[in-house]
Every structure is written in structure tokens, then in C-alpha cells.
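quick one, 502 residues, struct below
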Amino acid sequence: MSSLPSKSAAERGLGLIAELDEVVARNAGERATWPIGQRERAERLETAIRTAATESEAECETAARAVVVATAERAERGRVMDRIREAAKDPRNLDNGFNAGGDVYARERVSRSPWDNLPENVSRSDSLAGLTQRAHDAIERLDESVPSHAREVLAGMLALDRNSDSAAYVIAASDPHYVAAFLKGVASEHGHRSWTADEQRAYSRVEQVRASLSLAGANGGYVVPIPLDPNIALSNSGVVNPIREIARIETTASATWTGASSAGTTGSWTSENAALTDSSPTFTALSVTPNKLTAWISGSYEIFEDSNIAAQLPMLIGDAFARAEGAAFITGSGSAPTPLGVVTAVAAVAASTVTATTRGSFTTASVGDLFALDNALPARARAGRPAWIANRTTLNTIRAMSAAAAGSSFWATLGEKTPSLLLGSPVYEASAMTAATTSGSSLIILGDFTDYLIVDRIGTVVEYVANVVDGNGVPTGTRGWIAHKRTGATLTNGDGFRRLLT
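---
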């Protein structure tokens, strides 16, 4: 046998070490947190390295030493990197400059909570990419009571925001420690005295975000946590308001939302070597300023002492807001601070009106009016997501038409509470729509409600009032809460709707 060293064994060992180094570099944190496939690959490489070292040592002691030394150096580098990662988890070791922390969280998110090791100024805890990833993880960990569509609204807000404001708000206001601090704080004027250290820090972070977003607040005021915020997951039982379900909803962190709308462009058939027809669309600037919607909720000292009214606060606020919006999104004037309602907006578009065959009347004999309304809807709106809205009284009259005039095919599935489709489009009950059939009433709206825009500014704020006084400044034996949010609405394309005018 030749006494020359076996280059293949030595080179194979060194190549395996280089490959193992690449695996280690791609995976952050302790090996136990790596994907199982990566862990198994690292173990196979280490076994192969040991085999190569043994084979090389048998042929050339020098080659074996090279493998061993390289392995030791890699192990030392790994230990150094582990110490660096551990030190980076401590915010005291991070530069206080804006985004100086880099993507620390993004690199170690597998083993970390999105609320771990946050400084008071959340925006400085990571780069914008790291903050956004942390915010998405916080959304995923929200309580199951937050519906999926609410999570989508939050995620959409993050996608459109080019700075750290929205991400910082989502992270701070979703922290379970802040939820606990909020519930204690709104239960009593001294509730903050029972906060834990974690709850105090969580409150301080939200206050910093509130100040950066210019959300109004005063002594005793609290931003409602995301899992409890009725502006995120609106619930109500006092009014049937489907508009939020079918409208286009945008969420903003700024005082005014800006955008643009267009009626679209037109394609043209063009001959060979002929000039193209200019079909540039006309864009209309959109600007929606969310205005303040308030709710005042109060109760006697005895109610506060004998019930869990504080725990019901988010539900009470949500009900108050839903009832106010239920009317505003239908018939709001559009003059500040009231949003522009869809009926008010559509009524201002002359081409949108379909007049009932018999003025001042809507009966089971009015089947033709429904077909006329459906026929009048432009093709572009029909190709979108058209829907009907009407008062329950009107819907019951339409239900009766099916039996009296057109048979069961007119409105399918009559056994349901409200049949889901009318002439192929979804049907929604809106209690704020008029039930009167008197002349001049906008009885039914049919249209693509993605052309009705609702803009919410993030952050519902609640302030606790320990003692309510009368006009003479004398306490009335009542406590309460002032809640406010900011919402606006407008119509982006009036030609996407038709109304039945009786």
C-alpha cells in the first residue's frame, strides 16, 4: 500500500465541515429549535466527518489533524455565536438608535413570543421588517374571540403601512399583559395600583404608541386592547347593520386616508402600424377623514359594586357604536362629523334611480320593479359583488311575492330566516332602511358595495370617570366611561348602485 496520504479522505472531511458550517449558519438558536430535517442533516454530516477523520488518520496523521482542528474551530465558533445570540436577547445590549436592533426577532421568532424583551418604545425594538413580522405573529396569537375577518383587517393595515406605526400599535395593544392591565384599570380609579411589573411595562408601551399616533387620551384614559376593541371585531345585538360585512373597509394610522378611484379605461381594436387610441382613465382623488364617534356608559355606585359591569365594557361600547353606525352608514348626511350614508350618496346620483311602477306603493304585485332594478344595474357592478339591502318589512313583502306572483323560483330557499339570494345576488337586512312605501322613499338598494368605503382609524380610547356630577357640581352617585373611536365613509363610484324609489 502506498505511504502517500489519501487526499480524497482529507478533502472529503474538509468539504463535509464546510457543508456543516453552512447548515449552522442558516439556522438560528439552539439546535433543538431547528426544523427536524436540518437537525438530522447536521447529525449525518457530523457522523460522516468522524468517519472521514478516522479513514484519513489511518493513511496520514497530518490530514487527520486538519479535520480535527477544523472541527474544533467550528465548535468554538458555534459557542461564540451562541453567546452573542444570548446577549442580544437583553435589550440593554442593543443600541437605542432607531431600528438599531436589526432583525433580531425575525431571526429567532421560532423560540420567542412577539412580546418578549420589548423596550418602552416598541418602534425601536427591531427593523421595520422585524417589527412587521413580530406584529403578524401577534395577530396569529390573538384570542379565538377575535374573528378571522378582524385578523385580516389588521394584516391588511400592516401591508399598506410604510412606517412602523401600525406594527408598533398591533404589537403593544395585543400584549396579554396590557389586556390584563386594561381590565384592572377600567374597573376602578385605583385599578392601576394592582398592576404587576409586566402590566405596568405593557401599559407604558401602549402609552408611547398612543402618543406617536396622536390618539387622544387623558389621565385615566386607556387605548382598548386589540382583542377587546369593538372597532376591530364589532359585535352588536341592537341593530341589524350589514354594511361592514359587505363594504370595502380600510384601516389607517393617520388622521386622513387618501386614495384614488377611476371608472376604468376602454380597450380599442387597432390596425397594424396604426396609432393607438388614447384611453387613459380619469382618476378622482379620494380623501376620507375619520370623525369622532362617542359613547357614554354609566352606572350607579351599587351597580359597580354588585356586578361585573367593567368586564362587559367592550361589549357595551361595541353595541353603542354598532347602533350609531347602523343608521349613519345608511342615511348619514356626510356633513362632519357624520359619515356619508349609502342611501344619501346613491340618491344624489341621478342615473341611479329606478322609479316604482306605482308611486307610493310596494306590494306583492311589484315583482316587475325588482326585475327593473336588477336590469338597471350596470354590467361592471353585476360582475363585482352586488348585493341587495332593505328593511325586514320590505323583505317580507318580497317573500310574499314568491308565492303570490312568481312561484318558488323567484326567491329560493323560502324556509330560511332571510333567503340568501334574490335574482342571483345576496340579500341583507338593514334595519335603518325605511319600511315606508310613501312617495319619495328609497326602499331598496342594489349595488356593488365594494364601491362603498369605510375608513377606521386604529385605536378605540376609553376614559374612566370616577364621579359624575350634576349641573351644580354635586356628585350623583354615578360612575362611568367615555369611549370614542374615529370612522368615516364615502361612496367611491355612484354608478355601481341602483335604488328603487317609490
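The CA atoms of residues 29 and 82 lie 7 Å apart.
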